[in-house]
Protein 1
Amino acid sequence: MSKPSIIILMHYLELGGAEMALIGLLSALDPEKVDVDLFIYDHRGPLMRFIPEHINLLPEKRDYSVIERPLSEALKKGCFGTVMGRLLSKIAYKRCFRSHHSHEDDISYYDYLGRFVTPFLHKISPGKNYDLAISFLIPHQITRAKVNAKKYLAWIHTDYSTVQINPVAELKTWNSYDHIASISREVAKSFLTVFPSLKDKVVPIENILPVSYIKKRADEKDVSNEMPADLKLLSIGRFTNAKNFDNVPSIASELKKHGIINFQWYIIGFGADEELIRRKIAEANVKDKVIILGKKENPYPYIKACDIYIQPSRYEGKSITVREAQVLGKPVAITNYPTAKSQVINGKDGVIVPMANEECAAGIAKFILDSATQNNIKNYLQSHNFGNEEEVSKIYDLIK
């Protein structure tokens, strides 16, 4: 009897929370139980080499590989349909947000990208019919239209109560799926405030953490020369509006007012907001306190070396890096974004601090000075088992 077949679609494997969650899922899928094909649009990113051997990586397709590459590169490769779809998506997206007088948002843009690019893309494995097709990241139109499968599963990775979208247009896409995976109860709750009619499709499936991988990689490098401060604070993430790194300089400046002096706040990541963050560092006069370390293929030695991990986000689904820091036994402080309580049990495995800069700094300063709470959290983290590979059984249940 043949094993059930699954195909999973993903953009690329750069450093990021969704990418790490995918590596965790791939590692947990049992090759004795399922055959898994993985289709990566663009074969780039440092995590490509961590795709498990039992996963069948499908060949890259040229028209998919340039969906998020510069338009000039797409034209050089002769992908005129992809270019046309991208141009149409940008025009429609700009028009919509001008007419609604709302701010632009990356999450919403991907819906437009999916709608306009999908018709120009070739089918994936056209001669094969899978038992389950998984769209791991937006835009979800592509998997639904370009893969033949008996069932379809789309993943939610963000807090939909905080992003600007066109719910009428997006409902059609979400409704075309048999199941929708939510990484936490709070993420599901916020999603259903926007799409209440989809309640029966939502399945809770937590991000699967590759715990042994995290601990092994944390020992690969000594980073003491890069993080020499007496008190080492650390944040990791893409340089986007969601991560709120542009407010770190102001928060760091406020920390000094609370008597926190001998510290440095290191930021690992990359992205479009880097220039903004550097400008804010200069404006707040904290060049000696806020240090951008840039993109790191292996962030785990830096987490292991820090004293406190801080996630200052404006919004999150469920931050992978917070959980990774907890796996490595680090006290964490996160801002009180809408889904924060599904991420941290305040005072037990971390602390939740206010979002506003001054109050945020006061909360972080209090945590820094409270060694008893830090030690209690460390003791809890060291005794807690963060392995959750059993979550993969929910995938198997969908194809029974």
Protein 2
Amino acid sequence: MFTYPLPTQAGDSSPITLTNPVFLADLHLSAEVPAIVSGFLRFLETDALAYDEILLLGDIFDAWIGDDARDEWEAVQTRCLALKAQGKRLYLMQGNRDFMMGKDLAKAWGATLLADPVIATIKGKRYLLSHGDQWCTNDVTYQAARVRIRRAWWQAMILSLPRGIRAGIARRAREKSRAHQKSTTVTLMDVTPSAIEAAIQTHNVDGLIHGHTHRPAEHTLAEGHTRWVLPDWREKDHVLTQAGYLALDAQSPSGFALVSLLKESP
């Protein structure tokens, strides 16, 4: 049985201050991708120790049917609680695949669930953090679905169903999503420049950090603004082929750099 507040109401929209953060997104954790799961666990045991704050900006899971299913991810929870015990701060954000994540999961992991978007101050500059799907405004079909699944009544209805039924709904939703992606151009699935400009102006920020598009890069925008797209994680034949994150880098003109977790580029 679900507990209130509903996932759509649960994220904290308060601005945050970060001192030494690392940003990840689009891991799409699932039992079907064991190399990614193992790689993420290694990251939490190794690379994550170098940072004060670990921020997971959506699509952490390939699907999330509700916080009552968190017992399936005890190994990740154990690693996250170990990081908290060492003074690290963990932040979670919902994505388009795990928009049903709520405060029960965040509490179990010793994390804070963030609203999307949220402002973070890093070394005196303001950055807007988001999963990024809300800015893909040209994909009208997806945006209509996004509005529907974030309505409180819809989430309450879904969370009232047995876990087995919810798992079946999630499986069919993934299949429908894959079919939509195959029939949709890359341009439609990317962020819309006008939406990015509007977000910068509305929130008065110096830069944006997001995932979702699976097109990792650093983009220089007008008036000195910067947009970073986080790398998605991939595996093939149970071998990790792409994995990485965004972190502070004193040698970079922008102050950040995309880092690969692989010794060699795939």
Protein 3
Amino acid sequence: MDGWYWVVIGLLAAAIVVMAAKIMLMKKSAGEIEEALAERANIETNTLITLSSRDKALCRLAEGINRDLRQLRQERQRFQTGDLELREAVTGIAHDLRTPLTAICGYLDLLEREALPAEAVRQLAVIRGRTEALRQMTEELFSYSAILSREDKPEPVNLCQALEEALLSFRGAFQQAGIQPEISLPERSVMRMLDKAALERAFGNILSNALRYSSGGLGVTMDKAGEITFFNPAESLTAVDAEKLWGRFYTVENGKGGTGLGMAIAKKLTERMGGKIKAQIRGRSLYITLFFPIT
């Protein structure tokens, strides 16, 4: 009897060891799947998930994930091809529109030098305004496509200095609009590896948007961690407008000459440099917040 007892105990112990080993292998395989998925989510690769385990259930799981990865890669390739074709088409259209617009502006210049009746002068001013709006949109389209096509050139950038330079470049526009910006920046430099030209463009577009929609003021702050906030009174904007602010060609009804591309460009540039940007309505003010983490 004692002999059978120890045999049973031995079999149970062996079964426990086998089950523990199998659980360890399954945990290892699950870790491999998790690590492989995380890696493939961050890089462009054609490699699929492989497992050290031969467990049928886990192999079926890996096979299903690989099937989804193949489909995802195909969809991504179709999207990238379509996006490239769209950018090239937009660039071509914008470039082709430049020549006739330049000619139209030239003829308008000639007409404005002539002695014309008051009604003709009024109608000519309307034509000039529409032509300038079309020219601005054409330039923004061309700029948008060019920006998305160019490669970033990261370099050490002092965020405080870059922001100060952007504000100085708008000094004349602020004075003309009767806006005295309230600025609060940290005393110490906040350094990041960024594309300086792209950063300047993002700041410029945000400040242009503030000038367009501000109803009388502008505040700019930066904390020691490098979080930058632009805020201005914007009684005409709603929470819905803030959510749609990043959409291409989106403008609110009382936008003063806006094409709707400026903030979309600012978002694209910020995110491409690894930053985050968001818009919120607090009370009757619009807050635009940017943050570039240390990389």
